[in-house]
Design brief:
Distance between the termini: 61 Å
Radius of gyration: 28 Å
Helix content: 40-55%
Shape: globular
CATH class of the largest domain: Alpha Beta
Length: 742
């Protein structure tokens, strides 16, 4: 009967069984992995594919798959190890010597994920431990395995891109090729109908033409205001600079300057000029990702896929859902969390997409939001992508100078290399787009109470107030709600679906001229497209104040009684309590330090931002690599001894240990939660429920569980259990809650 890789069918009796020959599977995965790794290392990927399932030749595995699949339930049980990935890893080292260790990581981890070389926390799972157990290889019937599988005569050559410091990324790239090829070939056999729905599209000229047509129509229909003239000039410069050689770029444009469309214009023209395959647009917060993807979908249609935690499955086609698994699409809109945690991941599902970053354009929106304590590994991997994998990277920011001047940040930060600014004169651009006036407190130590702040905010017919925590948001909103025109609350105490509806409501009210006072946490600063005549901002980092200013007079349409253009007004106030401890508090202190002199610098000038970030980084950041990611990945990389698993566990943009999500009752979520409790988690259901989750401090979730307001409906999954926990105006209602941002 031959050796089997997979068994499918069986529903139509004996004739319904389909057997996937092991030799055929190895050959197909080898060929496909080589195709996916053309710019990474074809011979390495070819061998990885050829040897990844060698362990399936073992009698123990063949006995198990025949018996447990139901194909031959009478198959004799053969005792012994059932692990089928270790054999190929050992064979790689036997065949290639020390260089085979590279393939050993890929083969040993192609199901469980990339292992540590000598993981202290779990020595049994470490690669060096697994390689010592030769029983996996000794169990193979070598005489029955085709010679061109065991010894194909391939000796991979060449150097590791980036040397020892780049070994971890190179191995992840090869790992990505292997696991994607393995999955695709297995899917083609096990689920051919699903496999037929996959698309593997890349950028083409038609997408650029659609974008250009959209932009021509857009600029014909808008008023030739000063703001729109500046946006048109930004767009022109992005088009002109797109022919520059690939590498690292910065796009420094003030908030409201049209970065979303201008950066895409640069990416499209640059991709056409240099034959790039796809565009990855990474955004810091899920609160604006759907807005951005919606803008792009207007002219790109189904060429755009979204990949983020709050994605509603009802907005996905089967093809787009499949494409999120490996980013095989022309344009991917995702989050910084997805992008960077994938670049440092060990899990197969996270790593699978990485080979599709090669020869692409990555746009990092709001680049200043990269976590300072992970900044060094982030910059290191961006340099590697640009230098060795044909990736052009565009850092979009309104505030932060490109992270290339090591001296300006004090400590030993290895900055980005050879960054080119797309805008000819950023300072001139800031001057031309100036449409607000920022009023700073006369005394940064004079704190105001919420009643006094509410009186100031409430004096205006339409205003936006931005505060630092959810608790502060509720305090101010409660005082304003009793006023004549009320107030609108916006914070991450509300689930994603609730927030999206609230933002739409705010936009409608502004468009209709209805008096609107909004109290929000800083989530509204992250590119949410709203336009207020007056903005009040609690004291914070200067970059946050600038982002708040971007929600004020955004279109430059404010006029006085005589029809003359006037500035919007941004008022910075000192709230009753300082920002929460940590980076937010340090950013606030950097602002106070910089702005406390007799001659205060212009708070929105690029030169001021450079001084601010220098102050913040020198005094507020203890380490650029708090979790020693660089050391784990590079210290012994010359000998290919890399701690993949530990580094992946430590590299987290968001510390999941401090918070837990709860599922809340909003719209139809209650029935979905009931389905989850009754039938268990399914992929589509969990993806849909993500839009109805709220993150809370872990200790608060435990307290809510003790009071019966939250119930653990499945292991590790918590859900609302009383009507009073979630309010239609402000989301989760908790007394004595722990202060939390957003």
């Amino acid at each position: 009967m031959g050796y089997i890789a997979h068994v499918a069918g069986g529903t139509d009796g004996e004739d319904g069984w389909r057997l996937h020959p092991l030799e055929e599977h190895l050959a197909c995965v080898s060929s496909l992995a080589a195709c996916l790794s053309v710019d990474i290392g074809e011979d390495w990927a070819r061998l990885a594919g050829l040897w990844h399932d060698l362990g399936k030749y073992a009698p123990q595995f063949q006995s198990m798959i025949r018996r447990e699949s139901g194909y031959d339930p009478e198959e004799l049980f053969v005792p012994g190890p059932r692990n089928h990935s270790t054999a190929g890893a050992i064979h790689a080292i036997d065949t290639l010597g020390p260089a085979g260790r590279a393939l050993a990581y890929l083969i040993a981890g192609h199901h469980a994920g990339l292992p540590d070389w000598d993981g202290a926390s779990n020595p049994a799972a470490a690669l060096n431990t697994r390689l010592q157990d030769r029983s996996h290889l000794d169990a193979l019937p070598r005489s029955e395995i085709a010679p061109d599988i065991l010894n194909p005569g391939i000796r991979p050559a060449g150097t590791i891109p980036g040397g020892a410091a780049g070994a971890h990324l190179w191995l992840r790239m090869l790992f990505s090729c292997l696991v994607d090829a393995d999955f695709l070939d297995t899917e083609a056999f096990m689920a051919p109908q699903q496999a037929a729905l996959r698309t593997h599209e890349v950028l083409d000229t038609a997408l650029l033409q659609r974008f250009e047509s959209y932009m021509r129509a857009r600029f014909k229909s808008v008023n030739p205001t000063p703001v729109n003239r500046v946006r048109a000039d930004v767009l022109r410069q992005c088009h002109e600079k797109a022919s520059l050689p690939p590498g690292l770029f910065s796009l420094t444009v003030p908030t409201g300057g049209g970065k979303t469309l201008a950066s895409m214009a640069f990416a499209l023209h640059h991709a056409q000029a240099h034959d790039k395959r796809r565009i990855i647009y990474a955004i810091p917060f899920t609160s604006i990702i759907e807005q951005t993807a919606g803008i792009y979908r207007e002219f790109f249609g189904d060429a755009v896929i979204e990949h983020h935690s709050h994605l509603d499955p009802e907005r996905q086609s089967i093809q787009s859902r499949l494409a999120t698994e490996n980013w095989a699409a022309p344009i991917v809109v995702t989050t910084n969390v997805q992008l960077f945690e994938s670049l440092f991941a060990a899990r197969t599902s996270r790593c699978r997409k990485l080979h599709n970053l090669v020869n692409s354009v990555i746009v990092l929106d709001e680049a200043q939001t990269l976590p300072p304590e992970l900044l060094q590994p982030c910059l290191d991997v961006l340099n590697l992508l640009a230098k060795h994998y044909g990736v052009s990277i565009v850092l979009c920011t309104a505030t932060q100078p490109a992270l290339r001047d090591v001296a300006s940040f004090g400590r030993a930060l290895r900055g980005l290399e050879n960054v080119r600014e797309i805008i000819d004169a950023p300072q001139t651009l800031f001057d031309e787009l100036r449409r607000v006036r920022v009023h700073l407190p006369a005394d940064f130590q004079a704190r105001e109470d919420w009643d006094a702040i509410a009186a100031k905010v409430g004096a205006g017919r339409t205003a936006l107030a931005i505060v630092n925590t959810r608790k502060d948001c509720r305090e101010l909103w409660q005082r304003l709600r009793s006023s004549e025109h009320g107030a609108v609350h916006l914070s991450a105490s509300m689930c994603g679906a609730h927030r999206a509806q609230r933002i739409d409501q705010i936009r409608r009210r502004l468009h209709e001229g209805v008096p609107t006072r909004v109290v929000s946490t800083q989530l509204i600063e992250a590119g949410v497209d709203v336009d207020f005549p007056v903005v009040w901002r609690a004291l914070a980092g200067l970059d946050s104040i600038a982002q708040a200013a971007g929600r004020c007079n955004r279109e430059g349409r404010l006029k006085d009684a005589e029809g003359k253009s006037i500035d919007g007004q941004v008022h910075v106030f000192v709230p009753p309590k300082p920002a929460p401890s940590g980076l937010l508090r340090q950013a606030e202190q950097a602002t106070v330090s910089l702005m406390s002199g007799e001659e205060r610098p212009d708070p929105l000038a690029p030169a001021t931002f450079e001084r601010y970030f220098r102050q913040f980084y020198l005094n507020g950041v203890n380490s650029w690599d708090k979790h020693t990611i660089h050391e784990l990945l590079t210290r012994d990389a010359g000998a290919l001894a890399i701690q993949f698993r530990t580094a992946a566990e430590r590299f987290r943009f968001i510390d999941a240990d401090d918070s837990l999500p709860i599922l809340v009752w909003w719209d139809d979520s209650r029935s979905l939660i009931g389905k989850l409790e009754k039938e268990g988690p399914e992929r589509w259901l969990m993806r849909k429920l993500q839009r109805y989750s709220v993150n809370l401090p872990r200790r608060d979730v435990i307290r809510l569980q003790e009071t019966g307001e939250v119930r653990e409906i499945r292991p590790g999954i918590f859900a609302q259990d009383v009507d009073t926990l979630y309010d239609a105006e402000i989301g989760v209602v908790m007394e004595n809650c722990t202060p939390i941002v957003f």
